[in-house]
UniProtKB/TrEMBL annotation:
A Pfam family recorded for this sequence: Big_2
Listed Gene3D superfamilies: 2.60.40.1080
Species, as recorded: Butyribacter intestini
Protein's name in the database: BIG2 domain-containing protein
Domain BIG2: 9-86
Domain of life the protein comes from: Bacteria
Length: 90
């Protein structure tokens, strides 16, 4: 008779949006939801892969600068989430 195994899903974080479109000069905020993560003493690490197009601060506030695309990433422990940001015009 097989034994009963418990399965725990890998820790996850996710954004409230996976894609975002802005005009140059616009601002928005990304929020994350997470599950199965011990957040004690941890801070979310935010980054943009194209700071010329958009920047993101330590609270998830996005500022757009010029047309183009950027991937904004949030990392909490080993879990990561991505949001594609498109800036439509200068």
């Amino acid at each position: 008779m097989p034994s009963s195994l418990s399965y725990k899903e890998k820790s996850k974080i996710r954004f409230d949006k996976t894609k975002l479109s802005l005009n140059a000069g616009d601002r928005d905020k990304l929020s994350i939801a997470y599950s199965d993560i011990d957040t004690t003493g941890q801070n979310v690490k935010w980054s943009s892969d194209n700071d010329d197009v958009v920047s993101v601060d330590i609270a998830g506030n996005i500022t757009s600068y010029k047309s183009g695309k950027a991937m904004v990433k949030a990392k909490l422990g080993d879990a990561e989430a991505d949001c594609e940001v498109t800036v439509l015009s200068d």
